[in-house]
Every structure is written in C-alpha cells, then in structure tokens.
C-alpha cells in the first residue's frame, strides 16, 4: 500500500476547551480522562485512529497556559516539546466562548513552531448558534495563518470524519506505526492512577482543584490467584485540611472513592481488583522539584 499515511497529531488549547473529549470521540474509545474542570490531563496520552488508508496517532497534551507554578512550567515545556515532534497540530477554541488572552498566547506559541501545520478546530459547536460559529471562525482566522479551520462537535458527532480527513492529509506516507487494534500505548499504571485521581476529585473539584496527585506504587496478580489484581496506590494532597476533605467523615468519602475507582479499573482491565489506597500529605508538592520527580513529572 504505497499511499498509506501514518503519523502523529496533537491537540492544543486552553484547559477545558474539549481536547480530551475530541480525541476520545475520534478514537472511539475512552483513553484519556475527561472532566468539567481544567487540567485533568497531565500526561501525554495517545489514542490511535485506525483506518484502511491511514493511521493517525493522537497525542493529547495538557492545557497550555502561562506558568504560575513550577508544575505549570513543566507542563509548558512538555507541551512545546510535543508540538515540534508531531506532523500536524489541532488548535482548539470553543465556539461558545470569546477568544481571550490565553488563546492568543497559544496561537503565538504555535506560530513559532514553523515546520508543523496547524489546523484550527472550533469545538463544542452544539453549544453555539450558527451566527456565533460563523463569528468564531472569523475571529479564529484573524489570530494566525492556519492551514485549515473547521467547526466540530465531539458531543454531537459533527464533522469528526472531516476533521480526521484534514489531519490525515497532513501525515507523511508511511506504513502503519502500531499494530491493529492497539488503542493506547499508555502504561496501565498511569491509566489506573488517572482513574483514581478522577474518582477522588469527584464532588470536591472546587475545593481541591489541582492539589491531588496519585502514584501507583505496585500492581500485579496476587500469588496463586490469577483472577485478582492487587493494586497499591498513594494519593498525595498538599495540606492536612485537604486530607481531611478527601477522607470525609468517618472515612466514608475515601471508601466511596476507592469503590468507584476500583469499579472503573476493573472495567478498564477486565479483571477483579483489590485496591489499597492510602493518603499522604506532601506539602506544596506543586512547587517542589523533588516531589514532582517522585510523582512522575520528570524534567
Ligand atoms: N456540549 C459539548 N461539551 C463538550 C464538547 N467537548 C467537550 N465538552 C465538555 O467540555 C468540558 C471539557 O472537556 P475536556 O475534553 O475535558 O477538555 P480539555 O480541553 O481536554 O481539558 P484539559 O484536560 O483541562 O486541558 C467537559 O465537561 C466536556 O464534557 C462538545 O463538543 N460539546
């Protein structure tokens, strides 16, 4: 197959603009964790679109934003490194929000990555009127010189096929990069940690926006019980008050978090799971390089 195309794409945009949802809709299965609050996606998670004519490997990036904490700076360097390594970029702006400083900041960064074509994606079109969408397309086109501009809705399944076509058209001719059926190359332990973090944030996002990190210390089948997976995980919070919130009265909340996380993990891995979840206070972990390294955010 000489005209087969394969390569990498990344979606970039402010937190909460719908990048993860879009990637999940394109790939057709849940590999990244979505949420209604910013910065759920901290690590690069790939999903793969398999088509008879192409293979599109999507790298999901965390929200690019002005660095405020050390964590923010690392995210930015991770994002910028990602940008120059892919074949095509999707710059996401929601249809239902005015373009702001953050969008302009990112558009500037993208313009600096000269060798990678950028497709502007106006997301969440189901939440906007036709006029709003038309105006947003104009406003976005004034931001930079994009290779294409396309309105989509991940929730409404609108124009996703066309978006895939536009992205694939920018990939090099290449044999497939991954075996058929593979949907993510994210190590299972990281996916498991994300599911636990997601369960822990449920209901307390406003109180603990970015203060929870989860590390899976150990994971493996129990001896003599191939049907049961033992998982030992630590959840880090920044302050004792946050620990109290996560644990809840009489430990009720933590128990509930553990139950929901376990059910999600069992669904993901197709195995019965014993989850040992403990909480530790790691003071100001977002600002401490040593803690960040421990929690998996490498230089
Ligand atoms: N109505 C509607 N909602 C959407 C659409 N896409 C995403 N959303 C919602 O917007 C919110 C944010 O979506 P995410 O996919 O988590 O956004 P993100 O850009 O990946 O966010 P970060 O991980 O913080 O960078 C979620 O509540 C989604 O359900 C869409 O096409 N239509």
UniProtKB/TrEMBL annotation:
Spans annotated as G4: 123-126
InterPro entries: G_ERA_dom, GTP-bd, GTPase_Era-like, KH_dom-like_a/b, KH_dom_type_2, KH_sf_prok-type, P-loop_NTPase, Small_GTP-bd
Membership in a protein family: Belongs to the TRAFAC class TrmE-Era-EngA-EngB-Septin-like GTPase superfamily. Era GTPase family.
Keyword Secreted: no
Transmembrane as UniProt keyword: no
Binding locations of GTP: 13-20, 60-64, 123-126
Gene source species: Acrocarpospora corrugata
Span list, region G1: 13-20
Residue span of region G2: 39-43
Location (main, coarse): cytoplasm
GO biological process, one term: ribosomal small subunit assembly
Record's subunit section: Monomer.
UniProt keyword list: Cell membrane, Cytoplasm, GTP-binding, Membrane, Nucleotide-binding, Ribosome biogenesis, RNA-binding, rRNA-binding
Region (G3): 60-63
GO molecular function: GTP binding; GTPase activity; ribosomal small subunit binding; small ribosomal subunit rRNA binding
Topology of this chain in the membrane: Peripheral membrane protein
Coiled-coil stretches: none
G5: annotated span: 152-154
Protein name: GTPase Era
Record's subcellular location: Cytoplasm; Cell membrane
Era-type G domain residues: 5-173
């Amino acid at each position: 197959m000489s005209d087969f195309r394969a390569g990498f794409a990344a979606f970039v945009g402010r937190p909460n603009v719908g990048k993860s949802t879009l990637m999940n809709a394109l790939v057709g299965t849940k590999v990244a964790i979505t949420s209604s609050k910013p910065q759920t996606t901290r690590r690069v998670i790939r999903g793969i679109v398999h088509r008879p004519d192409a293979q599109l490997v999507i790298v999901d990036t965390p929200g690019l934003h002005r660095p405020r904490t050390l964590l923010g700076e690392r995210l930015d360097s991770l994002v910028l490194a990602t940008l120059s390594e892919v074949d095509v970029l999707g710059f996401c702006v929601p249809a239902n929000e005015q373009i702001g400083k953050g969008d302009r900041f990112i558009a500037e960064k993208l313009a600096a990555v000269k060798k990678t074509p950028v497709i502007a994606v106006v997301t969440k079109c189901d939440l906007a009127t036709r006029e709003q969408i038309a105006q947003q397309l104009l406003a976005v086109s004034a931001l930079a010189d994009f290779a294409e501009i396309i309105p989509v809705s991940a929730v409404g399944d609108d124009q996703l096929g066309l978006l895939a076509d536009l992205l694939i058209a920018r990939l090099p001719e290449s044999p497939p990069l991954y075996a058929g059926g593979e949907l993510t190359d994210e190590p299972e332990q990281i996916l498991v940690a994300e599911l636990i973090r997601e369960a822990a944030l449920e209901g307390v996002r406003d109180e603990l926006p970015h203060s929870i990190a989860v590390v899976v210390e150990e994971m493996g089948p129990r001896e003599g019980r191939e049907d049961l997976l033992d998982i030992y995980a630590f959840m880090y919070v920044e302050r004792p008050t946050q620990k109290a919130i996560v644990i809840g009265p009489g430990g009720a909340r933590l128990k509930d978090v553990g139950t929901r996380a376990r059910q999600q993990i069992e669904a993901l891995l197709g195995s019965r799971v014993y989850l040992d979840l403990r909480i530790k206070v790691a003071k100001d972990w977002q600002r401490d390089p040593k803690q960040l390294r421990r929690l998996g955010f490498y230089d």
